[in-house]
Design a protein that fits this description.
With 269 residues, the chain is an alpha+beta fold. It has seven helices and nine strands; from the N terminus they run E-E-E-H-E-H-H-H-E-H-E-E-H-E-E-H.
Length: 269
């Protein structure tokens, strides 16, 4: 099956990263997955949440916030501050981002400080939460490297990279990295988060309009795992430093992607 944008079911959209785009952030990344654009910025505060002090919990903390800018969607999206509350979807997504990153960071090594991850969607064309996790993984890695360089920590608390991707069943076919039109048409919708070792961090999935078989589930998991492996290669290429392995520029998927070349232009409509 060929998709509307010409991809095969197992093919991810072009992925690119632009690092250190926000000079006041401890780590920042603009991530592009197809026409989806998300800025992920990290701030490090030398304090921990009050509940940690009250409960005598040692180490540090990591948390995330997520929002979609008003112009990120076809019709203007009202800001949460104008509504006076965070909408349920944004609340769910920022908790997912925080959980995902906490799974790969050693909070004891972080010390008594808090990592804030702010993910802001510039343009939404499906997969904003998965793009946010993939970009946040890089932003946190950069921030931890900076803490090391400033001699605020003895070793990096970031244990491994993580990435995320969507998968689903569209017109009876399993596919990965759904764009907005595919996501709208999906009978089954999944979001997968996994580490560079191939271990799953979180699997979210449901039948939106239909049930799915065990075989379809296994197919989506396999597609997702393979896609995440490709995203990890792109992350390593973007980082390009030995702590996370040699950049794999000869990889057929990773080679056209960003390794400091910037974000590709949007598709013309």
């Amino acid at each position: 099956m060929q998709r509307s944008d010409g991809r095969t079911p197992d093919q991810i959209r072009p992925i690119a990263f632009e690092l250190n785009i926000a000079p006041h952030a401890s780590g920042s990344v603009l991530v592009a997955m197809g026409n989806t654009r998300v800025i992920c910025g990290v701030t490090v505060e030398e304090i921990v949440p009050r509940w940690m002090k009250e409960q005598g919990v040692t180490g540090g903390w990591l948390t995330a916030e997520y929002s979609m800018l008003p112009y990120s969607t076809i019709t203007r999206k009202q800001r949460d501050i104008a509504k006076g509350r965070l909408d349920g979807r944004s609340s769910e997504i920022q908790r997912l981002i925080g959980r995902s990153l906490r799974s790969v960071i050693d909070l004891e090594k972080l010390g008594p400080r808090t990592i804030w991850i702010d993910c802001d969607v510039l343009q939404a064309d499906g997969g904003t939460r998965t793009a946010a996790i993939t970009g946040a993984s890089l932003a946190v890695t950069i921030a931890c490297k900076k803490l090391l360089e400033e001699k605020k920590i003895a070793s990096s608390p970031m244990r491994r990279l993580i990435a995320a991707v969507s998968a689903g069943i569209v017109e009876g076919n399993a596919m990965v990295d759904l764009n907005y039109e595919e996501d709208k048409a999906a009978a089954v919708d999944f979001n997968l988060v996994a580490t560079e070792d191939g271990d799953f961090v979180e699997i979210q999935g449901s039948g939106e309009e239909a049930t799915f078989t065990q075989g379809q589930l296994e197919e989506m998991l396999a597609l997702g795992r393979n896609a995440i492996a490709q995203l990890i290669v792109a992350q390593r290429n973007a980082l390009g430093h030995s702590e996370w392995g040699e950049a794999q520029s000869n990889d057929p998927v990773a080679s056209p992607l960003s390794s400091g070349t910037g974000i590709p232009p949007l598709r013309s409509e």
